[in-house]
Amino acid sequence: MSAIDSTMTQSEQIKDDLAREHPLPSGRSVVVKVDGGREELEIRSPAGEVEVRIILTENGPVVNLRGARLEMEAIDAVALRCRRFEVQSTEGTELTSSGDVQITGRELKVRTERDIRMNGEVIRLNC
């Protein structure tokens, strides 16, 4: 142990170690921040932009992903459970299934600036 290390308490040494940036072979880096009660993990691009951020909070982790494209693939189901689910896109939204699509809720509201088009063999309302 160096003289500097021996003068630090164990928690100060851990905090100092966790406040550093660790370079990866890809040019990205991992940054772990501990500031008071806040703990944060970041993966940064070679340009220094945050691509992944995980903030550990009292209510659980908060995950932020940022990239040119995000993909998820699963052999079975992808299940999302949350209090509220929001999707926003600037150019378009597409939902495609080889099987049935079911939307269930208390009420369904659809609002468009233009026409609503429904194509199907039979369109049944109030059945």
Short structural description:
The protein contains two helices and five strands, in the order ααβββββ. With 127 residues, it is an alpha+beta fold.
Q: Can you describe what's shown?
A:
The protein is an alpha+beta fold. The chain has a domain of 63 residues. The chain contains 2 helices and 5 strands. The protein has a 5-stranded antiparallel β-sheet, with no helix packed on it. A hairpin with a 2-residue loop joins strand 2 and strand 3. The longest helix is centred in the first third of the chain and has 9 residues. It is elongated, with a radius of gyration of 24 Å. The N terminus is likely disordered.
Helical percent range? 10-25%
- Which blocks of ≥5 consecutive residues have pLDDT under 50? 1-6
Determine Rg (CA atoms, Å): 24 Å
- Give the DSSP E fraction (strand runs of 2 or more residues): 15-25%
Number of E strands: 5
Query: Mean pLDDT, rounded to whole units?
Result: 85
Count of individual helical segments: 2
CA-based shape? elongated
- Order of the strands making up the biggest sheet: 1-2-3-4-5
Query: What is the H/E order?
Result: HHEEEEE
Oligomeric organization of the protein chains? single chain
Intertermini distance:
77 Å
Structural class: alpha+beta
Instruction: Please summarize the sheet with the most strands.
Output: 5 strands, antiparallel
